[in-house]
Every structure is written in C-alpha cells, then in structure tokens.
Amino acid sequence: MFEPERAEVVVIGVGNEFRSDDGLGISVAKRLRERLEADIEVVIASGEGAELIDLWQGKKLAVVIDAISSGGNAGSLYWIDATQESLPASLRLFSTHKFGVGEAIEMSRAILSLPERLIVCGIEGKNFSFGDCLSAEVAEASKLLEQRLSDYLGGEGFTR
Amino acid sequence: MKSKSIRVDTLARVEGEGALHIKIKENSVVDVKLEIYEPPRFFEAFLRGRSFREAPDITARICGICHIAYQTSAIHAMERALGVEVHPQVRALRRLIYCGEWIESHALHIFMLHGPDFLGFQDAIALAKEKPELVKMALGLKKLGNDIVTLIGGREIHSINLRLGGFYRMPTRSDLQPLVDRLKWARDAAVESVKITGGLEFPEFERDYEFLALKHDNEYAITEGYLATNRGLAIDINDYEKHFAEEHVEHSNALHSIHKGKGTYFVGPLARYNLNYDQLPSIAKEAAESVKLGSFVRNPFKGIVVRAVELLFAFDESLRLIEEYEPAPKPFVDCEPKAAVGCGATEAPRGLLYHRYKIDDAGLIQDAKIVPPTSQNLRTIEEDLWQFVPPRISLPTEQLTWVCEQAVRNYDPCISCATHFLKLKIENV
Predict the structure, then answer these.
(1) Do A48 and B146 touch (CB under 8 A)?
(2) Of the four, A63, B175, B248, B354, which is 20 to 30 A from B128 by CA?
(3) pTM for this entry
C-alpha cells in the first residue's frame, strides 16, 4: 500500500500570480496551506525546471498544480500520475520558462529522480494576460481541485 | 545542383521567437537572414515619464534569464548620471549576484541548450537518458546559481533587493556561509566541465572577428570598466554611441548593431575571454590550458568551452567574494534626482548590455536607450553562416540544418531580449 509519511509529501503550486489564470497553481497551493496539516510541505514555485526537480526528488509523493493551455474548455480539470505516463503532448503546461514543468518531469524521469508518485493537477486556463484575478470558470474549478486535493492529502492513504 | 528546400519550422533551444532563412542556389549561398518576427516590445518608449528609480525593475522584465544584468546596467547608468559612489561591499555583492546569473545561464546553455548539438542528441532530455550523471551535475550547478540569486536578490527571477545606491537589505556573512561548501563542489565540477567540453569535436571554422567587451584594470570585468576591442579601441562607456550604432533591417524586429565605419563585431564570452584572459584566476587558466584552448579563441563553436571556463571562474570568484564579504554599514546610499544623462554597461551572460537614460530635475526619464547583446551579435551570426555554409553545401540536408542551428546557438541568442522561438528554413532555389 502506498502510505507516505506527511514529511515525505510536497505540494508545489506553479505559476505567475500576475498573469491571471497562470496564478491558479499558486492560488490553490496557498489555500491548501491553510487547510492541510503543517507537516505537509506546500511550496510556491515559478516553474523553473532545476528547482522543481530539487523540490520533488527523494519525496514519496509530489503534487504539482499548474495552469494548462491546450485550447480546451476553460476550467477543465486534469489529474495525471506522471510517474506512470508522460504528460500528453496536447497538454501544454503554461510556462514562461524554456525549461519548465514538462521538461523537468521528463528530465527527472531520465535521471531517475522522480518521486515515488508525481501527480500533476492542471486546470485549463483562459486568460494569461496581465492581471491578478482568475477567470470565473477557473476560479470555480480551482475550488473543486482544492477540495479534491484536501481530501486526497488529508484522507486515508497517509500515515499520521 | 538539384533544387531542394529545407525547412525546420522550430529551431529549439534558443530564447525567443525568430527564423533563420538560408537560400542556396547552384552550390552558392545567395541569402542568409535571421528573421526576428517577435513583435517589438517598446520598453524604451514606455520608460519615458517613469521615475529614475523604476528603471531597474522595469527593464528587468525584458528578460527572465539575465534580469540581474538589466537591473545592474540600469542602476549603473543612473548612478553615473547622478554621480553616486557606492560602498565597495555593495559593489562586491552586485558582482556576487551577477556571478549567480552567469552560473545559471552558462550551466543552462552548456548542458541543456548547446551540449546536445555536439553530442548528437535532439535535446537535453535525450542527453539525460544517456548521460544521467552529467545532467545531474549540470542541474546541481544551475541550481546553485539560482540559489545565489535568490539568497541575495530575494527571489529567483526579477530580484526585489537591488536598487539605486545599493540593496534594500544586505545579507550577513552567516547568510552566505551555507553556499561555501556547495561552491567548492561546484568549482571542482566546473573544472570537469571544462575538460568535458574541451574534448568535444568542433567544426573547422575561424573568423577574424572584432571582439568588444568591458575591460577593467584590476579584475575580469563583469559590472564595471571601459569598453575595449581587440583592434585597439579603448573608450569610456559614455562614448559607446559615438562608435556603435543600431540599424533597422526589414527582416528583423530586432535592430542590428554595427561598429560605425568598420562593420560587425562580436560580444559575449569569447570577447571577454579574448580581451581579459590575463585576469582569469589561475584555476581557470590551468583548466583552459589542460584542453589546449589557448588565450585567444576565434572559433565560435568553442564558445561552449569558453563558457565552461567562465563558469569555473564564476564559482571561484563567488568563493572569493564570500570569503572577503562584510555587510556595508548602510545597505544603500540615497540618490537625489537632477537633470542628467547617464550611461551604464555590464557583461550580461551573452555579452555587453548597454543602457543610457536622460532624466529631468524631478528624476523623470525623458529618453532611454537599451542595446542588448543579441542585437549586437545578430549580423555577426548572419555573416558566420555566409561563410560557414559554402564549404558544407554538399552535406545531406538534415546534417547541414543541424550544424547551422548549432552555429546560431554558438551565440546563445536571446531573441526576447533583442525584441521570443526561432524557426529555421534552408532553401535551395
């Protein structure tokens, strides 16, 4: 059974909170920080690849929350176990980095530094222009994701 | 020669958006254009009317990789305009955070962007699958650069701690101490990196370039100095525009720089190395000698080795700066505005970055000029390809395309700075 200790878990909110929907990962991570037990590490990251790999290597479970820009319906939720499969090419994670989340996952897979389980939670964004507000559809989806992650990380499957 | 057309829609592993178009007719190159179609970004225009204090933070947004370079060039231009002298430890701390940026940028370019070209890998992930230990080392080096910038700058990108006159807060000696052991590891790893890059195979290609870089009497210039070339020019930063000009060309939204009355010139690691070799620490010179690099390099493909030498220098210099560091009594000196013009230039990872500002009595910016390194190298890149392609024209299309992309990446071009994806087309007409 997959039962990580809480100290072996990291939640990483990725994005830029001044780029509207690109800030959803940070927004969800900040709210989770309030809800989760203090011994679960919640980190805000810009999405730079080397930092991401450093954050998740050696962990039993890492959850990455990020905005997705694939042309799909705004607010669509994605839950991908990246330890089992590569991110689909169509799911381009929105990133301002040349070496971003997608590249970091594949790089980490290649150098055998992925955590035992890496969950990528994405929400399809709509507006990535300057601004600090989420689109209505994205704000609604981010609340659903927050609840799902809170249940997942606070629920069974973890040793206390 | 049979007519054929080569098109690579996406030239990866460069920063920004543009295209390279090479036309070949009957075994001759008839046109080379580095087409920069990324829209102009108008930073110089929207700096007008803003406070002189805002220039560092506004111009930092031009780039997510060399933001410290933008901040430092802007700060130096304003401080020179206002006659502000900063504490030597402020100067040293600027040099240290700048080393952090060199480390991040050089480690990324050597191992993730340019290295795969030499080793025959499509990208860094393919390289990682074959050489995981090398890539782990590279990630560790890059991460250390990130951490230096974050520790001093307050965050990884677009530092919030640099300001006119100094820093908002200076770290204590003990803040910097955790970096020391990691820097010693990294310095050893960088010696290895010089050996690895020095052992690569390089295309036979040399040109008689004019190299331009900052030069300083007492140090390997990064943040201060005068402008010098290998052909005898030695001028104050204030005289840059007397000698160098930007020109608009139809196929590029980035301006092309020229040395007035002379022609193209070359900025970046090769220029710095060639002009300032003597000021490298012995550990860097010894590493360069171990791979027979010589003290003057004319083959732009060897830029990857020179970057590795500069990476080694940056780790060694960081250790020296931390060893000698004491916080200044005051983290910054106040800067009062007056009507003035100031020029600043620093050595961004890719080369010389020049800023000029004219401000009024209230400190509002009346006029701004920013010349990034990539604009200065664009025409040199085109000239390289004019000469590089003809002897290789009979290569299979795929191979020719590969080496042309590699030739562009010699310069680690940052198109985002120059005006963001490069598309490559080689066409036989």
Answers:
(1) yes
(2) A63
(3) 0.89
